[in-house]
Amino acid sequence: MYPELFSFGPFHLRTFGVLLSVSFLVGTWLSLKEARRRGIDETKLVNLVLVILVASVLGARGYYVATHAAETGGDPLAFFRLWEGGLTLIGGFVAGTIAGFAYMRIAGLPPGATADTVTPAVALGVGLTRVGCFLNGCCFGLPGHAAWCVRFPAGSPPDLQFPGQALHPSQLYNAFAFFAIAGLLVWLRPRLKGDGQLWWLFVILFVLVRIPIDATRYYEHSAYVLRRGGGGLTDSELIGLVLAAVAAVLFVRAGRRTGPAAGGPAA
Fold first, then answer.
1. How does pLDDT run across 60-70, given as a tens digit for each residue?
2. How do the domains of the chain map onto residue ranges?
3. Residue 236: left (phi > 0), alpha (psi -120 to 50), or beta?
4. Model-level pTM?
């Protein structure tokens, strides 16, 4: 666990923030290379990445504040205190997707082809930010007995919840899974013929990979919409299942179409 790279007076450079920034910089570079190959306007693509970045952070923070009202005391200004931490992947993913497709429509970008252009980069970015979660000590796992289970420093949030116990590195499970997905998407990109299919396949994989890994992750009781034994279905997983169902329909629909208009959510 290494949540902070360094501090100077009131300035604190957080590891998670650095990895989040790196993920978008690397993702932009990779997406621009693919945009050139596809003939997509590079300036508009950079603007798209910025829109997704801002929307993702706002959505991730907004969903966290909305689902952790007890922690914030209902303070509406808690949304703006990003330095206190508290982001949710599903909130950022949904907000970034909606804002991204909205910008594509406004900017006149072909939605399906443009979404496919950034898809592997998004998967890689999710993996990098999960490494940030591990170093930050958030999104930690449940106690386990595997040889690779880890003990977090005394006094850290994982240790306070499970004092002295070895925990599943759930964050790294996610990171490795999304690195693998990014590689798979690069391999599949020339093999899927319908514009938008790569993106909607990623949404499906996003959910299918996350749910089993979530079985190793600790969640507060308030996060469950359905409980059974020691686990259950969390609000994020429920939203994910809805997303996967919609994505499956749009994946099939995109496969039946060709051309620059395919793949958009309202095409």
1. 888 888 877 66
2. 13-140+147-255
3. alpha
4. 0.88
